[in-house]
Amino acid sequence: MFRATKLLSLVLGVLLIFTGCASPQDGASQDQTGDIQIKLGVIEPVSGSMAPLGTAEYEAIKMAIDMVNEEGGVLGKYKVEHVFADSQSNPSVGASEAERLITTEKVPILLGSYSSAIAMAISEIAERYKVPLWEMSGATDDLLIRGYQWTFRNEAMASSWGASGVEFVAEYAPEALGKELKDIKVAIVHEDGPYGTAVSDGNRKYAEKFGMNIVLDEGYSSKTVDLSNIIMKLKSAEPDVLLLTSYVTDAILFNRQAKELGFKVKMLVTHSGGHSVQAFVDGVGKDADYILTVDPVPCKFNTDALSPELEALHEQFVERWTEKFGNPPYHHVESRQFAQTILLLKEVLPLAIEKHDGVTPEAIAAAAKELDLPDGSTLMGYGVKISTPEDPFRDPWLGNEHIGQNIKAHAYINQYFDGTLHTVWPEEFAAVEPVPVLPPEHPLAAQ
């Protein structure tokens, strides 16, 4: 009897040792009754300089979760909860909050995070703890060229936005401007952070590819309070096309000072960031009209390109967002966070549950790597195929290798009409025809 009791105590002790060595995420996929529990860690900046856009992204994530839960949850039976963390527009805070969500809240996945700089910081924490980061808005190329295996990005990378902007110019400018590509003068102006630099790299590479004449290539700090020096350089260079990458504050500042200093240009192509958000429209009013933006998501587009189920879901989202906020979700921040949260909840997590037995970090990562969805099967418009360490994606514009990148992702060109963005390129998603050249009534239009 004594030997049996001693043996039982030894077995229990070994079990306790193994239980005590569990990773921070153990237990995230099942509760004590064996039912699957889904708890997401969400990090967005809802205070600090990025708060307006971070708040819009967070609201879109919550709306996607609410709409899925109203249908019964993931697979119609597993309700979704989330734990929120405010990065305060600070990469260091974002990293510390990511660690808290993993170690204290025991979330098996992180969602976020608006800023490329914040995404870079959070991805280091995700890699350390081997927890997936489902990055929905940090577009810098640097995020996925470091060999990390726990960060996944569905949208197109920033350099491809820059390449797409130039592709659009190459397609429309010769006829619109009456010039051959080699005679088209292009200026590249960008904020000098990871995001703006990556976009400008794509601009530069493809402008050179098409043989365009780059007459100015300048970076600046997005925190600047004076862009007059760059604007005067633009006036002197007299470009036909301006490729501009900004955040909100500097985008509004550029518009104001360009008008004050009399800068004029024929084609103005901006790159998401600060130009394709409601805050920019609020800041510049009618001046937003006819501005072209390169975005990772189609804004008001031809939904015939989607499946009937997704088309109905998109319409439901537009109606609900408009009712709640008074404006349709026709800007990239809210549209892409909703689209990519839906992708996670309707495609990735079901695969993790049905094929990999839960929502552990390992199961979610495995599911993300196995997705192979055709074009038109996501609210982003394109399909999904994530590059892996065994099969990295080498981008065709800069030649870098990316792990965790959706290789089917691409950018769109949207254009403002009456303060609302409409998709104008590529053709299958276009809601209206593009107006490549600023019309005479625009204050920045070159006559």
What topology does this entry show?
Blueprint: H1 2-20, E1 38-44, H2 51-70, E2 80-86, H3 91-103, E3 110-112, H4 116-129, E4 133-135, E5 151-153, H5 158-177, E6 185-191, H6 194-209, E7 213-220, H7 228-237, E8 241-245, H8 248-261, E9 267-270, H9 278-284, E10 292-295, H10 308-325, H11 332-356, H12 361-370, E11 372-373, E12 384-385, E13 393-394, E14 401-402, E15 412-417, E16 420-425
Parallel strand pairs: 1-2, 1-3, 3-4, 4-5, 6-7, 6-8, 8-9, 9-10
Antiparallel strand pairs: 10-15, 11-12, 13-14, 15-16
Helix pairs in contact: 2-11, 3-4, 5-6, 8-9, 11-12
Strand order of the largest sheet: 7-6-8-9-10-15-16
CATH level 1 class label of the largest domain: Alpha Beta
Strand content: 15-25%
Shape: globular
CATH architecture of the largest domain: 3-Layer(aba) Sandwich
CATH-assigned fold name of the largest domain: Rossmann fold
The name of the CATH superfamily of the largest domain reads Response regulator
Give average pLDDT, whole number. 91
Q: How would a textbook summarize the main sheet? A: 7 strands, mixed
> What is the ordering of alpha helices and beta strands?
HEHEHEHEEHEHEHEHEHEHHHEEEEEE
Distance between the termini: 100 Å
Radius of gyration based on Cα positions:
23 Å
Count every helix, treating DSSP H or I runs of 4 or more residues as helices. Answer: 12
Q: How many domains is the backbone divided into?
A: 2
Low-pLDDT ranges: 1-28
